[in-house]
Amino acid sequence: MAHTLEQTINALLEQEPALRQWLEQMRALIRDTRGVTAIAGLSPAETEEFLRLDPRLRAHRGAMTAAEFEAASARHADLKSRIEAALQDDAIESLSDWGAAPARG
């Protein structure tokens, strides 16, 4: 039975409770325009890729060649950088709204 991307992402998050907790604490788990769970700054497909890469890199221990590890590390760093940039943009936007005069009705 084929799984939807949403089901796959949720299954990957369940397999990595520490990563899920970090993402939740950072408020990085969002829903895209179609209602699919994603990580801020990433598409659902990139979210799946990140969720597969993260534990794979942590458990490397010879499971990949040096070239594979280097490529996976570079891709992981790119995705993580995009997550951090999206979270920073969200924080800046939230702060710019802070202290604004309440709307008058």
UniProtKB/TrEMBL annotation:
Name used for this protein in its record: Uncharacterized protein
Organism: Rhodopseudomonas telluris
